[in-house]
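Same chain as my last thread, 549 residues:
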Amino acid sequence: MIPATRIVAGFVVCCLLFVMHPSVSGQVSQGGVPRSVRLSMAPDSRSWVVLNPPELEPLRREDSLVPVPYRFAVNLPADIDFSTNGSWTTAMDGSRVWRLTISATGALAMTLYFDRFRLPDGGKLFVYNPGRTQLLGAFTSLNNNTMNTFATSLIMGDQLTLEYNDLGNLTPPDLHISEVAYAYRGVSDPRLKTGFGSAGVCEVNVNCSEGAGSVLQEKGVTRIEVKRGGSTLWCSGSVLNNTRNDGTPYVLTADHCGKLSTADDLSKWIFYFNYQSATCPNPPVEPAHTSLTGAKLKAHAGENGSDFFLVLLNQPIPESYQAYFNGWSRENIASPSGVGIHHPQGDIKKISTYTQPLITSSWSGYSHPSHWRVSWAGTANGHGVTEGGSSGSPIFDNNGLLVGTLTGGDSMCDSSSLTLPDYYGKFSYHWDKNGTDSASVLKYWLDPDSTGVLKISGRSVGLTAINPESRITVFPNPVDKAVCIRWAGAATSVKAELRDIRGKILLMRVINVGESDTFSLDVSGFAPGLYLLGFTEGERHVVTKIIKN
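reply #2:
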């Protein structure tokens, strides 16, 4: 978030083709237990790399002058090569284990940046802390990419161990660490007794009552560990749906977060999902989360425009992440109320509420009507605002559609600043007002077939590409009272299940259908929202989403 005073983000015949669950690959890790743990091997103290910590006082002075984007780490230069660092141990079963410990005194957490990363098939790489209470991996050849780069999510503390398991005299991996992010703020500090976050005390967790109407939207908001040259920053962003509804993993954030990141830097960005409290109060320990590494820039617009930055993740979002592709509206209409969802100062996910209409505004000396101005309202559990780290986060209208991304503003948890305005780049301006080519507007990416639609609803991970060979047609959609199903196959028995977005079965029927038969399901008694409608015929299963008005 940028302070406003300085630069800082009957039947209706309407066919619907079915979607099928995919087999998703490319997850950030494959799980498992390091060989040294499985075989109870003694710690290896032979190979260490000790990095010199930075001087913190100059960093703090810089941070006070440039508070956003929220820098939480500086990147220490490193030259750590698999072939020359670390040591091998041969286990009793003949397998080989390579280990190396890296330390940087005083670090609250560390991220490893690889400028060479290539693992052979069958090789496994793990990263863990001394007590093995935090374990990343196994990273495998599935984590290789065309740029041969990689980054690990944060390991807490000032010491970590890398372990490579070679189970069959494989081709050696090509691994080189060029930088180590040294986190000095904005992450869990084990020396403090007041939790792990840095957000202001006025902030409201997303699973408080204020978030009851945004349980889907929050799943699409991600914390972004932004690598930008020699610094690492916290920003926020949102996964976006597109008019093909095909699960392309676009993430929208602010240009002031990403504008100085090179393509190599972007390949090391880390996107954290589900980093939030499961309940309203702050949890006593830091919650678990999932993450993905790497993205490519597709389009952006600078601060003299609407300050957006659109990237495409380097891999699909695994279904197990239970993420949500947020819907959006490009109508330039002021929403009367809604919420913003964000990660202030890199903390767990928070929600801020507005109850007065958004106001068209310009941004910091520019005359373009490119932004929405918003003032936040006090609610039952606090008075959510925005902070550094919230940059690029989405603001939603009263229908749960994304209408803007945070550039900056003056709201703070200080009692005199709770209602000061914040400014969000308009999604309608992002769409086609910042330029004419695909590198400066959203429409080429989010409406690739030029359908011209003004708004679309969101979708969950697991609802994927259209299947043109489906024998089932569902209509109308959206639906008011009854959803109709037309069967185009031979006579058979079909089980139909209606589930809510969490997977709970709400309605189940077994229907004996004849050739080219049609039947209906009464959904009039269900609340408006998104539902999953699935059909099972023998070994075949298809599922689609329906919108209940």
